[in-house]
Specification:
- The complex is a heterotrimer of chains A (289), B (323) and C (237).
- Chain A is mostly helical.
- In chain A, 75% of the residues lie in helices and 0% in strands.
- Chain A has a domain of 194 residues.
- Chain A contains 11 helices and no strands.
- In chain A, 56% of the residues are buried.
- Chain B is mostly helical and 323 residues long.
- Chain B is built from 14 helices and 2 strands; from the N terminus they run ααααααβααααβαααα.
- In chain B, helix 12 packs antiparallel against helix 13.
- By secondary structure, chain C is α/β, with parallel strands linked by helices.
- Classes of the chains: A mainly alpha (289), B mainly alpha (323), C alpha/beta (237).
- Chains in contact: A-B, A-C.
- At the A-B interface, helix 4, helix 9 and helix 11 of A face helix 5, helix 11 and helix 13 of B.
Amino acid sequence: MQELLHQVLAGLATGGIYASLALALVMIYQATHLVNFAQGEMAMFATYLAWSLINAGMPYWPAFLLTVVLAFVLGVVIERVIIRPVENAPVLAVVVVFIALLVILNSVTGWIYSYTIKSFPSPFPAEPIFGQYVTSHQGGAIGVTLVVLLLLFLFFRYTPLGLAMRAAAQNPDSARLVGIRVGWMLALGWGLAAAVGGVAGMMVAPIVFLDPNMMGGVLLYAFAAALVGGIDNPAGAVFGGFLVGVLENLLGAFVIGNELKLAVALVLIIGVLVVKPSGFFGKVLVTRV
Amino acid sequence: MSRRQMIVVALVLLAACMLPFVVSNYRTFQFTLALVYAIALLGLNMLTGYNGQISLGHGAFYAIGAYTAAILMDQYGVPYWATIPAAAVVCLIAGFLFGLPALRLEGLYLALATFALAVSLPALLKYHHLEQWTGGVQGIVLLKPDAPFGLPLNPDQWLYFFTLAITVLMFVLAWNILRGRMGHAMVAIRDQHIAAEAMGIHTAMVKSMTFGISAMYTGIAGALGAIAIQFVAPDSFNIFVSIMLLVGVVIGGLASISGAIYGALFIQFVPNIADAISKAAPWAIFGIFLLGFVYVMPMGIAGAVRMAVARLTRKAQNQAAKP
Amino acid sequence: MAALLQVSGLHASYGLTRVLHGIDFAMDEGTITTLLGANGAGKTTTLRALCGMVKTQGQVRFSGERIDGKAPEDIVRKGIAHVPDGRGTFVNLTTEENLRLGAYTRRDRGAVEADLERVYGYFPRLKERHTQQAGTLSGGEQQMLAVSRALMLRPRLMLLDEPSFGLAPLIVRELFEILRTVNAKEKVSMLVVEQNAAMALELADHAYLIETGRVVLSGTTGEIKSNDAVRRSYLGY
């Protein structure tokens, strides 16, 4: 029983990280109808930036905030420079651009920082402060995730800029007709998604250690989580993230062992999708013929 | 096929036949692999380009084909040439069976499902309970076959011609399929799913069959690849293979038979070029090549060639029409 | 007095297909003008050309300033509001959010709030439903919402694309009454594209008849209504 609780809580902690990345994926999906396969590598790169800052002597939280800002800028720049030229290209061509981005970020990071695994500090104390079933970092990661999600929710719901971004994502033509600069809204969306991804990266690095390939598995889980929650539903993505995190942990600990847990988790998720093709909370798309 | 097209094909085939006698063995080996990829890309293109079903998991069928050949050769002493049809049958069935439940999934959801397939397969191959057949993490080592009937060809050259023959066969087969009722049904489903159904096309059957045929092609490629490389191991068939196949199809040109050849040459040789440019970050260079190709030729190399030919033909017609 | 809107030699194409073949017309400030024509005549394209949504050749002057070639977002900031065909509702946002978006480019917070109240005054049904998701409003309500959203800009010129489309005649009458009121009280000039010639001629002061991308007839609505050819082809009697 204790072991179960421990695994569930640990699952919620990694789930929070999946939820953050899934949310980033959904944010870009809502605006572009594309899944950004390079989201994980962008998050990884941002985490390495944080590592550089901390290594240079900056204390954790200032480095954290600065990294969030830098990740935001990186997202905006990537959208304006790399994605903009293909905004009218066929879908699969854009997918290849994402793949190129993924590969470039991964390779450049390995080149600058080498592939040796590095440790990344956690801002939370080593002793468990949230009770005996969860480490402080796990509890803290859940907390940080929730704070980020709350801030995003408030931003999109209650600020004019958030409203404009939602409008631009839902109906770019009408948005232009009320004077919204849709291109910049898109860039802003990418910036926010990159910033959220950066937070996810900084929360996961202390657990899996910093290495250019650390986000591969995380991205896959985040993708699955976003679909299970309904790819066009941010709240669904968050739910999906937590669900997938717990599922992964329970499978790994009690059912199949770490070798095959990824495969089994994915098979289960796909099973859900075959039964409920729009995910748990997605809109069932009724297309007019 | 127009006369001009037939001449081009004949010339290309002639050049292909002369190739092993003018380049080194290693180059011949590389071109053999390019041919292998061309078959695989043709398969994926039929599914994604002509039928509109995206697959991020064709590496799995490539692996299944490869392991079928390897296990048959290593454990049952089957001659190499017989493993090709065996791999074809196994993958045809596997693809069809995968295609059936996958019917309910479209776009992203299908991408995820195929992604899951590609990620699961190496894990399964490494699974210790299956080790006695798959050879586990170490994989299986194979021997390269010698030229038969005492032909004056070294193994690399023989394998090249063997692969070339199969490639030509597969291309002709694809051309026939795509030209016929099946091909038209595939494209109809891609473009107007509901209308296709309303016209009496059995979409479920066609989509599953397309999956099966596409898997068959990739499986044949996998088997040939295994024989050429003389080695199969789970880690050679990770998600990266699936991603490279998708890249090859897009760069080569979707819904195009010639696109398979352009794409195959790209994924075989550009990584080498990238490596030559930068030993430190070769994949970054590869990524930049990808960006360049997509920005300049969003419809793939085949698309760009098509547009260039159209423009030249129009110019020639205008010239001819001038008094 | 120079015209508020002056269009000369306007050509427009969708890709390689030329749709407008040299449109000329003008509008004075404070008037309601209607563009009439059959389906495919080029009326909607004309409005889109004015908004910068299609590639154009020719000149469009708004208050003397050239606006052809500008992006839609910039044209909005000149004070031109477009009510598109199909209404262009943000279906997943609430009614009030839709309205506030109409004022997106404005900096005068207080006046925006006042305008919101005034718009609710014209269309009390929108106030009733102001927290409702806009996509769940009826066709007539969504049309009112689209017009209100345009009004939230405090535009000098409003472009309306087939506002009567898909609406019951009673609702159209109600809507056009309000448009007349807004035009009279707030001096908002209006350019209305309509297939429903009869109702449009009741509403407007001037009319232009467009056929296959060209203006073939122009005049006051009185003149147009009494024109035999128009009566037979477009008014049905």
